[in-house]
């Protein structure tokens, strides 16, 4: 009986049974190998085959695309904006413009525009190189996994090319259009951000202090672009920007601790949370003291100290709440207010600027009355008639 069944299946395979597939034949062989299969009188085309036939399998009509998007050429400008971290570059340009406008020197619109554009291009170049170095680590973080280099929308060669073009153009504008000292500050900032700060993020928590130095240089660039020198007023702006970044970034990094830890970044929020909260609170106090001292250094008038005090005290209050509660809600409030605090503070400083004109004003010559001229100038007028009279007397 067994041999007859096997021969029947072999003949079906040889001549091709209608409606049978290899899987069905394997099922039939498995069925007849059991004890129940000997007594079964079912035909080879069973109900299982019928159910397979009746199942409607939908065809996959999705269009699969290559990882580098086909519209790269059409959206190259948008991708470069994302590569340069447009929001961060805009913040750098804003602080540079504030530094230029607050400087006690005549305002030159052309130099002002060149300084702003050069600073922005230098910042864009630094951000592009930074993303190029951090692609393996950005892929592990939820906040950065959708960046253009991580998703393959741009290749590394695009990042290097964009950084080279932006950095060369920006430094050239600062050197030839503004002054060499501003260009030197821009080059220093570019080197610090890409070659020191970025590698240090995976080595030591000192990266936050160094990153704050990088953020404090743009207002100095604006001030030097206007005056050509580093005055005490420029240091006031640098200290404000330096201290502002601690409550801003420490509050931001607090809710990103899992991401930073997964990627291996040495941040205060990960390695020493208590220090992270203390430093944020401490530097809000530094901002209060620096704003009160700005009138002493003749950057602003006394009204600025009074008008900025409520803004700075509320900033300090939010930092105190973050230090006390150390939860996600207090950190978000501190971070969001920091985005409002800096533009508002820069605007108040501009409104209450100490001097709107240069201290070295050039005296313009004024038209003087002829009647008020010195006698020496008047005496030369009748010389010619006197000489003529003397010659006439000598002839007589």
From TrEMBL:
Name recorded for this polypeptide: Protoheme IX farnesyltransferase, mitochondrial
Primary subcellular site in the record, as a coarse category: mitochondrion
Organism classification: Eukaryota, Metazoa, Ecdysozoa, Arthropoda, Hexapoda
Topological category with respect to the lipid bilayer: Multi-pass membrane protein
Catalytic activity: heme b + (2E,6E)-farnesyl diphosphate + H2O = Fe(II)-heme o + diphosphate
One Pfam family, short name: UbiA
UniProt xrefs under InterPro entries: Protohaem_IX_farnesylTrfase, Protohaem_IX_farnesylTrfase_mt, UbiA_prenyltransferase, UbiA_prenylTrfase_CS, UbiA_sf
PROSITE patterns registered for this protein in UniProt: UBIA
GO MF entry, a single one: protoheme IX farnesyltransferase activity
Role description: Converts protoheme IX and farnesyl diphosphate to heme O.
Protein keywords: Heme biosynthesis, Membrane, Mitochondrion, Transferase, Transit peptide, Transmembrane, Transmembrane helix
A cellular-component GO term for this protein: mitochondrial membrane
């Amino acid at each position: 009986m067994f041999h007859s069944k096997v021969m029947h299946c072999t003949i079906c395979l040889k001549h091709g049974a209608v409606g049978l597939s290899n899987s069905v034949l394997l099922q039939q062989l498995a069925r007849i190998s059991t004890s129940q299969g000997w007594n079964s009188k079912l035909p080879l085309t069973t109900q299982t085959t019928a159910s397979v036939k009746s199942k409607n399998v939908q065809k996959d009509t999705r269009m699969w695309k290559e990882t580098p998007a086909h519209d790269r050429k059409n959206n190259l400008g948008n991708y470069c904006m994302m590569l340069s971290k447009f929001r961060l570059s805009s913040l750098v340009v804003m602080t540079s413009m504030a530094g230029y406008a607050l400087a006690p020197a005549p305002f030159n619109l052309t130099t002002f525009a060149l300084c702003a554009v050069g600073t922005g291009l230098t910042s864009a170049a630094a951000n592009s190189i930074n993303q190029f170095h951090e692609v393996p680590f950005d892929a592990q973080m939820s906040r950065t996994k959708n960046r253009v280099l991580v998703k393959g929308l741009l290749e590394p060669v695009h990042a290097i090319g964009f950084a080279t073009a932006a950095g060369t153009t920006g430094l050239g504008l600062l050197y030839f259009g503004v002054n060499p000292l501003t260009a030197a500050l821009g080059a220093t900032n570019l080197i610090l951000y890409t070659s020191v700060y970025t590698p240090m993020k995976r080595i030591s928590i000192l990266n936050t202090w160094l990153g704050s130095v990088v953020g404090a240089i743009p207002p100095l660039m604006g001030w030097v672009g206007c005056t050509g020198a580093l005055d005490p007023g420029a240091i006031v702006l640098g200290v404000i920007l330096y201290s502002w970044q601690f409550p801003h970034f420490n509050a931001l990094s607090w809710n990103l601790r899992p991401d930073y830890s997964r990627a291996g970044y040495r941040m205060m929020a990960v390695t020493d949370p208590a220090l992270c909260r203390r430093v944020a609170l401490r530097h809000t106090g530094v901002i209060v003291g620096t704003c009160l001292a700005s009138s002493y250094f003749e950057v602003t008038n006394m009204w600025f100290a009074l008008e900025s005090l409520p803004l700075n005290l509320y900033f300090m209050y939010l930092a105190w709440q973050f230090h006390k509660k150390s939860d996600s809600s207090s950190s978000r409030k501190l971070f969001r207010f920091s985005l409002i605090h800096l533009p508002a503070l820069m605007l108040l400083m501009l409104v209450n600027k100490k001097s709107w004109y240069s201290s070295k004003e050039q005296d313009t010559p004024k038209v003087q009355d002829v009647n008020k001229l010195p006698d020496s100038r008047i005496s030369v007028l009748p010389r010619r008639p006197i000489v003529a009279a003397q010659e006439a007397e000598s002839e007589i």
